[in-house]
Amino acid sequence: QVQLVESGGGLVQTGGSLRLSCVASGSIFSASTMAWFRQGPGKQQREFVAQIARSGTTIYADSVKGRFTMARDNAKNTAYLEMNSLKPEDTALYYCQLLYGRAYWGQGTQVTVSS
After folding, report:
1. Quick one: pLDDT at residue 95?
2. Burial of 48 per CB tally in 10 Å (0-12, 13-18, 19+)
3. Which helix (H) or strand (E) holds 49?
4. Which helix (H) or strand (E) holds 47?
5. Can you tell me the distance from the alpha carbon of 3 to that of 97, in angstroms, rounded to the nearest whole number?
6. H or E segment at 97?
7. pLDDT at residue 58, as a whole number
8. Which of 20, 19, 26 minimizes the C-alpha distance to 3?
9. How far apart are CA 21 and CA 7, in angstroms?
10. What per-residue confidence (pLDDT) applies to 1?
11. What angle do CA 105, 35, 72 make, to 5 degrees?
12. pLDDT in tens, the chain (115 residues)
């Protein structure tokens, strides 16, 4: 069973930075695609933010392109999301996802950007 634990969220001012981490249990991390999603206040659905394939290829949502960077460290079973130039509209609960046959989700870490 895969478990994902996110950390690194917090309260930051507009223009600030945060780095989120997602640690996965088990032995499938290096073979998996990892992604970050977010769910803003009052929104019904989670929004795609970024993805990194096992090859290291990344994809970003247009809303975060140029500001967010996703990376992975297979030796540490950890995926990262470096977030710069944060905006109030980035405020959300950020979820980590692992894709390997099925999707696994973490519990989320809260990011709040004050104006």
Report:
1. 98
2. middle
3. strand 47-52
4. strand 47-52
5. 10
6. strand 92-100
7. 98
8. 26
9. 5
10. 84
11. 110
12. 899 999 999 999 999 999 999 999 999 999 999 999 999 999 999 999 999 999 999 999 999 999 999 999 999 999 999 999 999 999 999 999 999 999 999 999 999 999 9
Q: Which residues contact 52 (CB under 8 A, 6 or more apart)?
A: 33, 34, 35, 58, 70, 71, 72, 79
- Residues in the chain, total: 115
- CA dist 63 → 8, 11, 57, 101 (Å): 20, 20, 18, 28
Tell me the two tokens of residue 21.
Answer: 């981490």
Whose CA is closest to 6, among 45, 43, 39?
39
Structure tokens at 94: 């950020």
Pairing of strands 4-7, 102-105: unpaired
